[in-house]
Amino acid sequence: MLAVNDDVEPKLLALARGAHGLDPKHLRATLVLAIRGNVAVLPTVNDMLKEDDSHVRYCAIMTLFWAVEVPAIRSALNTACLLECYRREPEEEVRGRLAQFFGEIKLKAAVETLVADLQDPQRMSGEVVWALGAIGDLSVVPALLKLEIGPCSPVYSALGMLATPEAVDFLCDHIDNFEAADALRNAKGPKIRESLSKQLDRLKKKAKQGVDVDSTIARVEAILAEVSEQDPRERLLRTGEDAARAERDRTVALQALRDYDCSELLPRILAVLQSEPEKSREKFGTVGLSDACVRALASSRDPKVSRALFDLGLDERLNDKRIDLYSYNLLDAVNERLGTHYFTWKFLQWHLQRLLSSDAGK
């Protein structure tokens, strides 16, 4: 259906143009033509954006999202019409999708309108903030920094995408916030390492003065390793394995590994998890060393890893240990594996062997 066929195109165009509202044939024909790169359907999409029914307007913008990677469609977009539709759009959800679309296509013409919406409580939204970061116009950084920035604000992510010196300095100053830390990990630009190094020096001076900033130092060091090296996995894992290092340093380093492919490192991460399990449950912030290991191992489907997680999970429940973040994430990782027939069967097999061994020892 999506392959180009000259005989079908006129019929699809007739369906797209001939029906109105939420008629399924109309919506499907419009979507198929857009994905196939038929620019003749774009006036119909623009008309849909002006319909009274907000559901129709929503379907129109989602059609554009589906087809945005098609070069013919992208180059033929009537961005002036899209901007006008955005300005008069009353529905927050449709307006948010339009803002996201502007970010997706990096529409610089939308910047002035989006910045103005930052000052309007009725139109300000996370999608507007994200779009400003995605478009990449560095002049918006001062406007973003003036916003009231909460702990989970999308401003952190937008500043990371823009990565001006002011943006990076702000993120470094708020590095205790996980959103700010993630934004720094994903940021690009020459200023990042320099700002992180300066922040690290400031923190070490505070530590010498008796200020408790050890956890922040550990986080900065981990992020600095990530942004300074093409492949920081080995360095991060060595920190996590070093029993002489502070618990918080090891935890932060292992936490950072969950963003990377750790398939080659699984035996070593597993060894950390299995060593001193009780001690490693001590908390650093909301995450302990064991929990950081479980998170790094969670995506693996290696049978050895699964068996180790099953054994630890059974130990949690059979010995009625306390429920905490480590216990929750461990059992969640086990539960995910039980979603496949293979691992369900292996779990039952291993559990039976364990019970038989226990009975034989009595």
Classify the oligomer.
Answer: single chain
Radius of gyration, whole Å: 26 Å
Shape category: globular
The CATH class label of the domain at 1-77 is: Mainly Alpha
Number of helices: 22
Portion in strands: under 5%
Distance between the termini: 67 Å
Average pLDDT confidence is: 81
CATH architecture of the domain at 1-77: Alpha Horseshoe
Strand order across the biggest sheet? 1-2
Instruction: Spell the H/E element sequence.
Output: HHHHHHHHHHHHHHHHHHEEHHHH
Topology:
Elements: H1 9-18, H2 24-35, H3 42-48, H4 54-67, H5 71-75, H6 79-87, H7 92-104, H8 111-118, H9 126-135, H10 141-145, H11 155-162, H12 165-173, H13 178-186, H14 191-208, H15 214-228, H16 233-241, H17 247-256, H18 266-274, E1 283-284, E2 287-288, H19 289-297, H20 303-318, H21 325-337, H22 341-360
Antiparallel strand pairs: 1-2
Helix pairs in contact: 1-2, 2-4, 4-7, 6-7, 7-9, 8-9, 9-11, 11-13, 12-14, 13-15, 14-15, 15-17, 16-17, 17-19, 18-19, 19-21, 20-21, 20-22
Provide key terms for this protein.
362 residues; two-stranded antiparallel sheet; Leucine-rich Repeat Variant; mainly alpha; 2 strands; globular; 22 helices
